[in-house]
Amino acid sequence: MGLYRILLKVTVLFHRLSTSLILLCLLLTSCANSGLGESLQTSLAADPKLKDTAVDEQAIAPTPSPTEIPDSQAELPTAFPTEIPQYPAAVLQSVNESDRATQWASADSSDRVFAFYQQQFQTNGWKLEESPLSTTQGTLVASRDDLRVTVTVQPKLDPSNTAPTANPVVGTDFTIQYQQGSSSVGAALSPTPSPTESTPTPQEAFLGLSGSSDETAPPSQPAVTLPPNSFTDIDKAPKELQPYITALAQLGVLDLLAGSKEKASVNNFAPNKPISRREYVRWLFAANNRLYRDRLAQQIRPAAGSSQPAFRDVPVGDRDFAAIQGLAEAGILSSALSGDLAAVTFRPDAQLSRENLLLWKVPMDTRQPLPTASLDVLKQTWGFQDAARIDPKAQRAVLADYQNGDQSNIRRAFGYTTIFQPKKAVTRAEAAATLGYFGYQGDGISAQEALKTEE
Fold first, then answer.
1. Which residue has the higher pLDDT, 35 or 416?
2. Cβ contact 384:394 at 8 Å
3. Residue 278 has pLDDT above 90, yes or no
4. Segment 198-249, tens digit of pLDDT
5. Do 279 and 219 belong together in one domain?
6. Within this chain, do residues 141 and 211 fall inside the same structural domain, yes or no?
C-alpha cells in the first residue's frame, strides 16, 4: 500500500513538469518576434568576444595596430650584385643607381655591423684591401674578381637625446657602394683631373702628392700608379734608409698627420726629425698588419672602443687608441695587462728612445719569448761599451736582435756601432728602417717584397 502511494506521487509530479515545459515552449514561440523574445535570446546567447579571443582554449594575439607595422623599405636594384654580403638585420633606406650606392640602417650596434663585413670580406674569395683601426666605424674596401665594394659604417645618433651622460647611439647607418667590370679599375684608366680639379685625393694627400696640374700631369696622361719617393725630402735621409721609407710610403703605412697636434706639410717626411712614441706605435701596428695582410694569425687586432684603457693618458677618444691599446692587449707594450703595475701611463707624445724601439719591435720579429740576458752576454755579442746603461727589460730584446743576424733592427737602422746609446731619440728614417722587415732568422717578409705581391 505504501509503495502504491509513492508511485502515484511520482506520476503526478512528472505530469506537472511536462505541462510546464510545454507551456514554456509555447511562450517562447509566441514571443519570438517580440522585444521580450529578442532580449531573452540575447541573454542566452554565447559571448561573441569569446570567439575572437580563444580557439581550443588558446588566446589569439590581437592584430597589430598600424603604428606597429614597419615602414616599407626601398627596393634593391636588379643590377645589385648578389655576391655582395647583406647584413641580415638591416633595412634598405635609399638607392642611388647612378653612383651604384645603397643606404642601409640597422638597430644593431655599429661594432656588430662592422665585424660582420670585416669577416665576410676575409672569406669566400674576397680580398680585403682597406680596413681602419677602429672596430666600430670607418670604411672597408674589398674586391672579388672584377667587383670592388666600399662599405662605410657609422653609429646612428639619436638627435632628440641631449643628455651628456646618456648614450646617444640608437643603431647603425651604413652605405654600400660598388664598382663592377671596367669601372672597378677606373682609377687606373681615367684621365688625370683638369687643373681646376687640383684638390688631392685622400690617398694622394696621405702619400704627399699635391694633386694634378698642367706642369705635373697633362689631362691626357693616365694615372696608373702612385710614383715612388712621393715625399719631396727623402733624399735628406741616409742613403741606406731611403728604400725603406719609399716602400713603406707606397704601402700606406707612414701616416704623419693622424693624432698629431701640429699640422705639417704632407710633402715632407722630415726623416731626421725625432719620432714620438705614439707615431712609432701607429706605424708599427700598420706595418705589421700590412706586410702580413694575407696571414691573419700574424696580425694584431685593434682594440675595441669598449676596452678599458690600459694607460691613463691614452683614453678611448684618442686617435691612436686602437693601435696603442691593441698592442698593449697583445702584450707588446708593457702595461698592467702584462703584469707591469707601474706602467700606468704611456707618454704618447714623448720621443721614442732606442731601447724602447727594440723592446717593442723585436717581439714582433721573434714571435716567441725573449731570451735571458746579462751584461756579460751583451758585451760578448754586441760588444757595446755602454751595455750597463740599457734598461734590464730591454736587454733581452737587444740580445734577441743580435741573434737575427743581418736582419737585426740595430744593424739595419743604426749600422755598425760599438755604442748603443739606449736613451737616444730615434729619427723617423731610423724608425722606418726597423719597420721595413718583419721576421726572425730568415723567416720573414720585407716591405719591398710586399709591394711586389701587389703588382
1. 416
2. no
3. yes
4. 444 443 333 333 333 333 333 333 322 333 436 888 989 999 999 999 999 8
5. no
6. no
DSSP 248: H
Does residue 403 sit in the same domain as residue 379? Answer: yes
Cα separation, 27 vs 266, whole angstroms = 105
Q: Is residue 361, in this structure, part of any structural domain at all?
A: yes
Out of 227, 248, 280, a domain closes at: 227
pLDDT of residue 38: 54
Q: Are strands 147-157 and 101-106 parallel, antiparallel or unpaired?
A: unpaired
pLDDT of residue 98: 82
pTM summary value = 0.53
pLDDT at residue 345 above 90?
Answer: yes
The count of structural domains within the chain is 3
* 368 and 219 within one domain: no
Domain limits at 282? 234-453
Q: Cell triple for residue 79?
A: 643590377
Strand boundaries in 305-446, DSSP class E: 437-440, 443-446
Q: 149 forms bridges with which residues in the sheet?
A: 142, 178
CA 282 to chain centre: 16
Q: To which H or E segment does residue 326 belong?
A: helix 321-329
Predicted pLDDT at 184: 47
- Planar angle of CA 83, 85, 88, nearest 5 degrees: 135
Q: How far apart are CA 137 and CA 153, in angstroms?
A: 5
Judgement on whether residues 240 and 222 belong to the same structural domain of the protein: no
Residues 137 and 200 reside in one and the same domain: no
- Assigned domain for 288 exists: yes
Q: Is the pLDDT of residue 114 over 50?
A: yes
Choosing from 227, 249, 284, the residue where a domain stops is 227
CA dihedral 260, 265, 268, 269 (to 10 degrees): 10
| Contact (Cβ atoms closer than 8 angstroms) between residue 148 and residue 141 | yes
CA end-to-end distance (rounded Å), the chain: 126
Q: Which range is most confident: 27-36, 195-204, 440-449?
A: 440-449
**HSE-CB for 71 with a 13 A CA cutoff:** 8
The reply to whether 322 and 198 lie within a common domain is no
> Is residue 265 in some structural domain?
yes
With a pLDDT cut of 90, the percent of the chain lying above it is 44
Q: What share of residues in the chain are helix, strand, coil (percent, to 5)?
A: 40, 15, 45
CB 413 within 8 A of CB 428: no
* 343/371 same-domain check: yes
Name the E strands within 158-252: 169-180
**In the predicted model, is pLDDT for residue 39 greater than 90?**
no
Mean pLDDT over the full length of the chain: 76
141 in a structural domain? yes
